[in-house]
Design brief:
This protein has about 170 residues and is an alpha/beta fold. It contains 7 helices and 4 strands; from the N terminus they run H-E-H-E-H-E-H-H-H-E-H. Strands 1-2-3-4 form a 4-stranded parallel sheet, with helices on one face.
């Protein structure tokens, strides 16, 4: 399939409502030119209209950006559940690599908190857990209809366990 919407249409045509279908959401659209951000939202809406049941987002750390994106999705007529993608912070190098590869905007206060301890993985994990747990609380308390969170484990369950305990 050339586009995600083609796969959603195919699944619905072949299997009806037998499967729930999740599609990807990209909250970082604020970094795109306005016409490209609008196009991304149209593509997402097309997937929803084709039969997607919920949206899993790419990871993010900027709560204000995410809330703004959810409001934009709702304004575009997207009413299905949105599940935020949450990446625990395990190490400084892993955090830097993941955010760089995914082109994630990292709030300055995250960097200010973590960077002084970049050579101490245990401290980065401890501080990162607190930062991300606070992000999770803010998401769930934001009154934007978010009912759950998706944790990216990257086969490292310890970070998710610590985050859930926090």
């Amino acid at each position: 399939f050339s586009y995600g919407v083609d796969l959603v249409r195919h699944i619905r045509a072949q299997y009806g409502d037998y499967f729930d279908i999740a599609v990807a959401g990209y909250p970082q659209t604020h970094q795109l030119p306005p016409e490209e951000a609008a196009r991304e939202m149209r593509y997402l809406k097309e997937k929803v209209d084709a039969g997607a049941n919920f949206i899993f987002t790419q990871m993010f750390y900027d709560i204000d950006m995410f809330i703004g994106w959810v409001h934009a999705a709702r304004a575009a007529g997207i009413t299905i559940p949105i599940v935020p993608g949450i990446m625990p912070i395990q190490t400084w190098n892993g955090f830097q690599k993941a955010t760089s590869l995914a082109k994630i905007t990292v709030p300055q206060f995250f960097l200010d908190e973590l960077e002084p301890h970049k050579n101490n993985d245990e401290k980065v994990r401890e501080l990162g857990t607190k930062l991300v747990a606070n992000l999770c609380r803010q998401i769930l308390d934001a009154n934007i209809g978010i009912k759950g969170l998706h944790f990216y484990t990257m086969n490292l369950e310890k970070g998710c366990r610590l985050l859930l305990e926090e």
